[in-house]
Design goal:
Elements lengths: L1 E3 L9 E3 L3 H6 L5 E5 L4 H9 L4 E4 L3 H9 L4 E4 L2 H13 L5 E6 L5 H6 L4 E4 L3 E2 L4
Length: 130
């Protein structure tokens, strides 16, 4: 299981962005993270400039498109939605990894039992908020 943002686990941080200019400034070993909806230009910018990116998705359609567009990670807020998207990722052999946003350690086991690729704590996101 991928664990991003836990204080005991080494990780490369995600950097929350809202524009192409912010994407251009992040260190090359970070992953840009932003909401999928309404950010088509940021996706194109990341693709063109070989910037690793993660998208926060609200639907199966967004998750399918995010994978097709080259997202490294698909971030989901809801455990049930994450499980549904994880099942699709396995059926369609997504390259992207599915991450469930969690707020505390008690949620790690539930995510693992659901077969989710990984978890993302707030501490794993620079400029982040839940």
């Amino acid at each position: 299981m991928i664990i991003i943002g836990h204080n005991l686990v080494s990780f490369k941080p995600f950097y929350k962005i809202k524009s192409n200019s912010e994407a251009a400034k992040i260190p090359s070993d970070f992953t840009a993270i932003f909401k999928f909806a309404g950010n088509e230009e940021i996706i194109k910018f990341c693709q063109k400039n070989s910037i690793n990116f993660a998208v926060e998705t609200q639907s199966i359609k967004e998750a399918l498109l995010a994978n097709a567009l080259g997202a490294s990670y698909i971030v989901v807020n809801d455990k049930k939605a994450a499980k549904n998207i994880q099942n699709l990722a396995e059926d369609y052999l997504f390259d992207a990894k599915i991450l469930l946003k969690i707020k505390n350690e008690n949620e790690i086991e539930k995510a693992a039992k659901s077969g989710i690729d990984g978890i993302l704590f707030l501490q794993g996101i620079i400029n982040g908020d839940f």
